[in-house]
C-alpha cells in the first residue's frame, strides 16, 4: 500500500498533467474536502464525494487561468501531509493576476485521500 506522502505527490503530479480522473482515483468515496474562502470564490466551500470534488476542479479551471502551481514543501506526519506552495493565476472574468502562497493539508487512510483543506491569501484575489 502506498504511504501518505506518495499518494499526495501522485495527486499533485496528476494535477500538473491536468489529469483529474487520476486525482479522483486517489480520493475516497466519502471525502471531507474544503477550500476555505469567501463565497465570491466559486470553488470555495465544502465537498463530500468524488463527484463534488470533480466539480471543484472544473470550477477552478473555469475561474482561474493557472500560470504556475508549485508545491514546494511536504511535511508528513503519519496519515497527515501538509504541503506549502505557491501559485500564480489570472482570475476570470476580472483578468487580475494573482500570486499567493498556499497551504494544503491532507489526510490519507488506506491509500486514499479522506480529507483535504486548502487555504491561500484570498484577499490577493480581491485587492
Automatic annotation (TrEMBL):
Gene3D superfamilies: 3.10.450.50. Coiled coil: none annotated. Residues 8-116 form the SnoaL-like domain. Pfam families: SnoaL_2 (PF12680). This is SnoaL-like domain-containing protein. It comes from Cupriavidus basilensis.
Amino acid at each position: 500500500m502506498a504511504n501518505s506522502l506518495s499518494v499526495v505527490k501522485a495527486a499533485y503530479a496528476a494535477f500538473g498533467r491536468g489529469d483529474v480522473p487520476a486525482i479522483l482515483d486517489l480520493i475516497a468515496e466519502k471525502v471531507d474536502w474544503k477550500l476555505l474562502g469567501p463565497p465570491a470564490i466559486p470553488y470555495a466551500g465544502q465537498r463530500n464525494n468524488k463527484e463534488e470534488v470533480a466539480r471543484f476542479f472544473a470550477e477552478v479551471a473555469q475561474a482561474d487561468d493557472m500560470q504556475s502551481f508549485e508545491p514546494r514543501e511536504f511535511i508528513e506526519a503519519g496519515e497527515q501531509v501538509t504541503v506549502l506552495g505557491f501559485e500564480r493565476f489570472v482570475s476570470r472574468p476580472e483578468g487580475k493576476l494573482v500570486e499567493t502562497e498556499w497551504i494544503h493539508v491532507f489526510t490519507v487512510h488506506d491509500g486514499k485521500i479522506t480529507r483535504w483543506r486548502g487555504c491561500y491569501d484570498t484577499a490577493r484575489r480581491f485587492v
